[in-house]
Amino acid sequence: MLTDDFGREVTGVRVSLTDRCNFDCVYCHNEGLGDTRGPMDPQDDEMDTDDVVRFLEVAAEFGVDAVKFTGGEPMLRQDLEEIIARTPARMEVSLTTNGTFLPDRADALVDAGLERVNVSQDALDPADFAEITKSGAYERVLEGVDAALAAGLDPVKLNMVVFEHTAGYVPEMVDHVAENDGLQLQLIEYMPELTGKPEWNVDIQRVHDWLAERAAEIEHREMHDRKRYWVGGGPDSSGGMVEIVDPVENPTFCANCHRVRVTHEGYLKGCLNRNDDLRAMGEMTKPEIREAFRETVTNRVPYYGEYMVRNGDDEWEVNEKYIDEYAEV
Description:
Layout: E1 12-16, H1 49-61, E2 66-70, H2 80-86, E3 92-97, H3 102-112, E4 116-120, H4 126-133, H5 138-150, E5 156-162, H6 170-179, E6 183-189, H7 192-195, H8 204-214, E7 217-221, E8 226-230, E9 241-245, H9 251-255, E10 259-262, E11 267-269, E12 279-280, H10 286-298, E13 308-310, E14 316-318, H11 320-328
Parallel strand pairs: 1-2, 1-10, 2-3, 3-4, 4-5, 5-6, 6-9
Antiparallel strand pairs: 7-8, 8-9, 10-11, 11-12, 13-14
Helix pairs in contact: 1-2, 1-10, 2-3, 3-5
C-alpha cells in the first residue's frame, strides 16, 4: 500500500468515467474540473474500457481496495457493466449517479458486481428539483432509488448538496430517510471555491446543531472527524442515518483523505480542489502507470493545512513555500 509524505495511505480511488450528464445541476463542479459538459454522445477523449481496467489493475497491486465510479453521469457509459465486471475482485465497487438509468439497469449492475450506490436527490418537490437540476426527471429518480433497493443495493445513500437552493429541504429529507427503510442521507457541504457562487453558501454548522438535537444516537467517525446522526433506529439498522460531509476549510478532513482521483480523460490527480498536479496516463503501459501512480501519491498534500494555510489575519491563502518547492520537482 502506498503512503504519501504525510502518512496517508491510499486505500481508494474515485474514477470519473465521463463528464457528460443528462442533468445540468447549478452547483456542479465536475470533479473539480469546472463545467465542461458537452454533447450526450460518447466522446473521443474519454478513457475506454481497457484504459479504466488497466488502471484499476495497477491500483489493486498497491493495495487499493475500493473504487467509486462517478461522472458527469457514469451510467451514460454503455460499458459500465463491463467495467464493473472486470474490476479486480479485491475492490469494493460503488457508484454515484443521478438515478435516472437505474430502473432499467440496477439488476445488471448488481450482477456485474456493484455493491453500493449514491443517488443525487436535492429536493422532494418536482418543481424545485427541476430548478436545481434543469431536468424534469424527478419521478424517474424516485423509480431509480426503488429499483436500486429492489436489486439489493441496501442501503441506498441519497446525496444532497446543502446550499441556498436546498437548505429549506433538509428537515423534509431527514424525515424522508427516517421513514423509509433502506435509505440514508449524505448532506454535502457546498463548495463555493469550485463553483464561483459564494453567495449561495450556508452555515453548515447550523445543520449539525439541528441534527444533534433531533438524533436518537450520534456516531463519531474519527477518520474524517465526521459525525453520523441516526434519526431512525440506530447503527444496527440499514436506514435513517444522516451524515454531513463538510470538507471546506477542514484540515482534519484533508489530513485523513485516502483517495486518489482519475478524470474522465485519464489524468491522475491527488486532490479534488487542485488541477496543478494532473498526470496524464494516456497510452501508458502498466509499468508507466505504476510510476505515475507512485508519483501522484508521493506528491499528495493535504489541501487545507498544507497547500492552503492560515495567514496573520486568520484567512486561508496559498502556501507559496509549498508551491515553490513543488515547481522545483
